[in-house]
Structures are given as structure tokens and as C-alpha cells.
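Aim 2 progress update. The chain analyzed this quarter is reproduced below.
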Amino acid sequence: MTLDQTRPGQVFIIRTIDDPHARLAAIRFGIAEGARAACQAVLPGGPVVVRKGKQEMALGRNLAHRITVELVEG
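Predicted C-alpha cells:
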């Protein structure tokens, strides 16, 4: 599944970021392949809010759609 399909409260591991430009943009937000994070909110027609550690970031839908994640328990 892609990051833009996650729902608030779901915890996931980032598996792939499909294009070099998207990968670079994600790294600027502190997100890399193998990182564990959680979905905080999905704003209607807007960004996906992700929490990684103590940091929250809002990722645009286009970027979130390019990030493949795997859901994990707890």
C-alpha cells in the first residue's frame, strides 16, 4: 500500500520510495526506507500527517503516493 492510503493510528515501515526526486524530498523530511512511523491524520484533499519519533510532518499527497509502506502491529 502507499502512504496516502494509510489511516490515522496505523503504524508502518517505509519499504520503498519509487523515484529519486521523491526519495530526496522524503529524506529532507527525515523519512527513509526502513523507517518506522505512524499516520496521525489524513486531511481531506490535502496532506498526510506522519509522526516519526517526536516529530510530526505533513507530506503532500503526490509525495505520499510515491512512498510504499507495510503496516505493522502496534
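The mean pLDDT is 91. The longest helix spans residues 20-28. These observations will guide the mutagenesis experiments scheduled for the next reporting period.
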